[in-house]
Backbone:
């Protein structure tokens, strides 16, 4: 057979035993693909510490349903955080959004109550709160504490800004007229503005209560305030007494205002009274120069006109350049006050400020003066009182000091009483007390002597009154009066005696009439009865020249 022809051989069949590893490999590959296909995403959590977290055991839950499990726990590269990896179930993948939040559920005792007691037996676990964002995310930072409110809860989130010390903490209640309607979600200090910023959540439907005229203030549990109008004691609910909180409302007499949107910023006031103070844009500052002590007069004290507040005190004392308090050139204490005309006139605006200053100048000329009055005798707090004193010397108007107008002042309260007492004592010191006392002593001696004589006369009158003859006087006087009455009856107009008496009187009148010329002559010349009176010639008229 030629060598260039191929040799044909019949191949042997594959052994059936190889089918077993092939099937096993196929099944294994299918299981791997199925496992990878059904396996959820792997997420990474950054935490401050791994307290209560165990790899392979600690579950991840939402609404008490397990949706994942912790795989590994390791220390971060910065050695300050813990990195936790967890495998999530496939059905949990839609929950992993940019605003999804994680935190560790364990026993906690906080202001909002006790939570996580069920983990005492089952152990701690990670809670997932789903977000609403459309952006997918696999790396998260776990919260130190559970969130106060759910992300998707209906309501309103607002911001509060305060220059006071940190007085609120996360979880504190937000109250409206004593009823809890929300919580404080965040508390953060801004170093650039040096203010405390708070985020509040007010749940629906109470979010409609927040308007543009709403005011927020702190609840300080039991608050005792001693002001010029007395001592005030305010108490809140048991929760606010223990942990504080924040309240809000629209001040009485204000309009409700318009609804607000999310992230609206409000100021946080120290108390309800300060929150109700209306902020007036139009105001005028004046300086008061007091001779009295200003101890007890503090910034914020009211400036009143006959009991109505028209302003407040700004600075005590107000240091004016070149006007030292202890120099001989100025012995008065300057106090800066602010008058707000809007408290008196609702339609006040900036265009009317010059007219207001002119009216104030006219009022000063009519006797308007400022004085210090005691608002609280217990605390010694003072306030500034404006009133008219027409009996005082008139003023030319407003003065000037350091580009401010000055208002004339008068001593007020105890200082004025003290001044009047001093004036009275000065007048008493000017009196001649010794001479007055000497005269008073002499008068007293004479009075004593006169009283002794009066007692003697009284004793004599007593003796006379006790005599029998004195006691008979009334009877004898009665008889005498009876005789006089009989005599007068005999001289009646129709009696003969009355007619005879009348004729005698007429004759006597004629005699007296005739005797009058002789009596006149004797009066002028007493020797007329012995010598013949001189004959006087008739007067001769003067002849014409």
Residues:
């Amino acid at each position: 057979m030629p060598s260039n022809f191929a040799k044909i051989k019949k191949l042997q069949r594959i052994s059936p035993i190889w089918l077993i590893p092939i099937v096993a490999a196929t099944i294994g590959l299918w299981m791997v693909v199925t496992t990878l296909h059904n396996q959820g995403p792997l997420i990474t959590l950054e935490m401050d510490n791994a307290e209560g977290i165990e790899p392979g055991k600690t579950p991840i839950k939402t609404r008490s349903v397990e949706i994942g499990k912790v795989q590994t726990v390791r220390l971060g590269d910065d050695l300050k955080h813990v990195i936790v990896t967890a495998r999530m179930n496939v059905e949990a993948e839609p929950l992993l959004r940019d605003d999804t939040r994680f935190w560790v559920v364990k026993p906690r005792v906080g202001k909002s109550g006790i939570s996580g007691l069920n983990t005492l037996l089952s152990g701690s676990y990670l809670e997932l709160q789903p977000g609403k964002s459309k952006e997918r995310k696999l790396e998260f930072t776990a919260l130190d504490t559970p969130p106060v409110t759910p992300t998707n809860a209906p309501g309103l989130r607002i911001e509060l800004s305060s220059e006071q010390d940190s007085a609120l903490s996360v979880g504190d209640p937000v109250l409206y007229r004593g009823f809890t309607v929300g919580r404080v979600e965040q508390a953060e200090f801004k170093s650039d503005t040096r203010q405390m910023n708070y985020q509040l959540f007010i749940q629906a439907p109470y979010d409609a209560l927040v308007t543009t005229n709403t005011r927020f203030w702190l609840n300080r549990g039991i608050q005792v305030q001693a002001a010029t109008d007395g001592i005030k004691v305010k108490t809140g609910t048991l929760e606010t007494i223990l942990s504080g909180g924040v309240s809000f409302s629209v001040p009485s007499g204000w309009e409700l205002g318009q609804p607000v949107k999310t992230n609206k910023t409000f100021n946080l006031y120290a108390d309800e009274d300060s929150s109700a103070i209306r902020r007036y844009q139009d105001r005028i500052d004046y300086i008061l120069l007091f001779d009295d002590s200003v101890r007890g007069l503090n910034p914020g004290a009211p400036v009143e006109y006959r009991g109505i507040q028209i302003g407040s005190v700004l600075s005590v004392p107000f240091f004016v350049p070149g006007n030292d308090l202890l120099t001989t050139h100025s012995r008065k204490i300057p106090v800066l006050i602010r008058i707000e005309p809007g408290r008196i006139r609702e339609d006040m605006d900036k265009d009317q400020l010059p007219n207001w200053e002119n009216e104030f100048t006219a009022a000063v000329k009519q006797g308007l003066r400022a004085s210090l009055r005691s608002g609280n005798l217990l605390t010694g707090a003072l306030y500034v009182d404006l009133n008219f004193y027409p009996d005082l010397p008139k003023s030319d108007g407003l003065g000037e000091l350091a580009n401010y107008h000055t208002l004339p002042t008068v001593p007020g309260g105890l200082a004025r009483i003290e001044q009047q007492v001093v004036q009275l004592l000065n007048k008493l010191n000017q009196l001649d007390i010794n001479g007055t006392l000497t005269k008073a002593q002499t008068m007293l001696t004479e009075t004593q002597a006169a009283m002794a004589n009066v007692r003697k006369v009284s004793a004599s009158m007593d003796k006379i009154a006790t005599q029998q003859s004195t006691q008979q006087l009334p009877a004898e006087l009665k008889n005498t009066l009876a005789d006089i009455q009989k005599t007068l009856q005999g001289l009646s107009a129709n009696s003969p005696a009355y007619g005879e008496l009348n004729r005698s009187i007429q004759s006597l009148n004629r005699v007296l009439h005739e005797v009058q010329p002789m009596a006149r002559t004797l009066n002028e010349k007493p020797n007329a009865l012995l010598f013949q009176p001189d004959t006087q010639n008739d007067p001769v008229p003067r002849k014409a020249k």
Summary: The mean pLDDT is 77. Residues 23-141 form one domain. The radius of gyration is 57 Å.
